[in-house]
Amino acid sequence: MGVDAVEPDVVATKDGILVIRHENEISGTTDVEDHPEFADRKTTKRIDGQPLTGWFTEDFTWDELATLRVRERLPEVRPSSASFDDAQPVLRLVDLLDLVRAGSSEHGREIGVVLEVKHATYFASMGLDLAPLIARDLRAAGWADGQLPLMIESFESTILAQLREEGIAASYIYLIEATGRPYDQLVAHGRQAATYKATVTPRGLDGLVGRVDGISVNKRMLLARGNTIVEDAHARGLKVFTWTARPENAFLAAEFRGEGGRQAYGDYESEWAVIARSGIDGVFVDHPDLGVAFFRS
């Protein structure tokens, strides 16, 4: 579809295998609920300080997860995508890396990977340090030496620093939410931890120079009138990306929503135009065909 890269989210299994899932809680993205042999694995945990009930990757071995099939996370918004439910297995990180490399060869151009690391502080608290696991898989798949286009991103700066120390050649991108504080910093510093909003002020950006190569901000921050995030970051040599540009009313800012309910497309082009005019270096989309057509036009 012409994309520059794919963005997998990675979490870990009980036996230290990295798998591709949006979250470590998998009831919404797999058929685990339909497996009676795993019924007793349902539990309530605190993930990044928030209570969550379901089934969690860290309570399964890879061999167990491999018996599951994946499902669309938002079936009410994307029924066409949900039509493929239960047809494909969960992928490991190494599987995805091999697929992207094969896709690059097939299409005759480089396709990159933007690897999002999820819940690193949480996993470390149970003895699953993600940095060495990620380094292991990247090296095994030939993605660690800078020969292939790799970006690594996380909402936690600690894991980014750890992966730099592991010697992984990549661009490191700090993910920025519109509200709240990074969980790793909250654990380390309590309420004294800087908020995400403070991180994208000029003073906060000064503190990122030399530590990361760029930031990737919630699109709401770029849609806020009068913001200077892109200009301020570029002035400090930092790249700026944003997420996630989606056409459905469910995800558009209120002024760009149209008729037809949550799954109908609103005036996404007007919203995306605001984002494009901000001068960003890249944008994450869920509909690559629409994204390529709009942002490269």
From TrEMBL:
Annotated GP-PDE domain residues: 1-295
InterPro entries: GP_PDE_dom, PLC-like_Pdiesterase_TIM-brl
GO biological process: glycerol metabolic process; lipid metabolic process
E.C. number: 3.1.4.46
Catalytic activity annotation: a sn-glycero-3-phosphodiester + H2O = an alcohol + sn-glycerol 3-phosphate + H(+)
GO molecular function: glycerophosphodiester phosphodiesterase activity
Enzyme class (EC, first level): hydrolase
Family: Belongs to the glycerophosphoryl diester phosphodiesterase family.
Descriptive protein name: glycerophosphodiester phosphodiesterase
Species this chain originates from: Microbacterium aerolatum
Phylogenetic placement of the source organism: Bacteria, Bacillati, Actinomycetota, Actinomycetes, Micrococcales
